[in-house]
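Chapter summary example.
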Amino acid sequence: MSLGIFLAITYVLCVGHDLLFPAQAMHPGWERSLPGFSWLNWPSFILGLIESFAYAWYVALIFCPLFNFLAARTSRRSKA
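The structure predicted for these 80 residues follows.
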């Protein structure tokens, strides 16, 4: 949940940065990495927010079990 909130906040900050500093826009990167996102209207903004949160859950669902597995395996080796 914390990773999802972190990426959602990061997404909002990046969109805000693009609005404040259009010469240094990052939205082309968002358009490539978030399917269906286009610059900028409310439905697209909400879709990007949902996708950012979903990507974070995907990373957490893959990374956490993998980390726990490897950490348990490493701790068993160090005890033996």
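To summarize the output: DSSP finds three helices and no strands in the chain.
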